[in-house]
Request: fold
Amino acid sequence: MSKVNNENIVKFRKEISKLKRETYNEVANCSCLLCNKEKRIIDSHSLPQFVLKCIASNGKVFWGPGLIYPMEIKYGIFDKDCGVNDAGIFHLLCRDCDKTYFSEYETTENYVDINQDSNLFKKMLLQAALKQYLKEFYKNKFNYLLESKMSEKYAEKDILNINNFQILSNLSEVDYKKKAFKILDMLSESNFDNLEIIYYKTVDYKIGIASQCIISLDLDIKGNVIQDKYNFDEKYNLEDLCVLILPFNDYSIICLYHIIFERNIYGEFIKQFNQLKDREKLKIIQASMFEYTEEYYLSENIFRKINRDDNFNYYVKGHDNLHDYIYSNIGPNKEDKAHSYTEYWKKMKLYLLDEFKVVKD
Reply:
């Protein structure tokens, strides 16, 4: 992307905007992914809007790519912030399915005085995961087509490692869809046997971060290999953890949980995690979110604080282009892997604490 002269930035942004519109039209479904009926597809939100509104300023929130992709922000591939109505949206479901399959999770009252052992809460966690897997499926499908169009249009192949990214994106797309339908089966059978709540906490202040994300850890807390995140073999399936950070007006919920699909590979990680003090557990959750996903939203104040955080900039941002990082450090066996827990999780400020809470206007 360095080959694009500054004088041509406006032109480049317009071209990218056009490519994104074309991609949106191509990935648009004529039928609902869940009921398979030809109905109008609506805007679905991966995070409840009533959560995002709690940290919004002037109707807008900041998000992960605004922190970690400064070059892509500059050239219009991503936006630094977005309106609450546009945050985390995907287009796969009809209105009936969006309402039916997520009704408990989308009800504000269900988050008051939660009983984490109740089937209601377990159902809400599965619904939250289902929505995020659908979002990731849609995002990967969209990105795969967009990267293809960019590859065809621009000769500067050093802008992004297109070929490797497309392989990874295409495989992830299949994996996310498969897992979404497995969760759908769990919900239809009220089967919570493969759901394990690793950590749950309610705090009496509003956290400036909102996230509902899926993370595939490749290293445990001590830096030992859990799985090969960048194995391109179609038969190799990743196991994930799910993170929920939900701020409300007077309190926030933090939850880490595991849905076992094929292999229970997080036993050693969970054992290490449970031996930590509470503050260290929160640091692990925050570090995992920052390291393994971009699916988090921020209040304006927290966004500016993190953007000035030297440890975040070194360990998480650290590269002009995330794809360059991934494919220069591919596989979990790199000895000098910049994102290892042992390298940075203890050093970063903990933005889930009371001292960084969102203060009411």
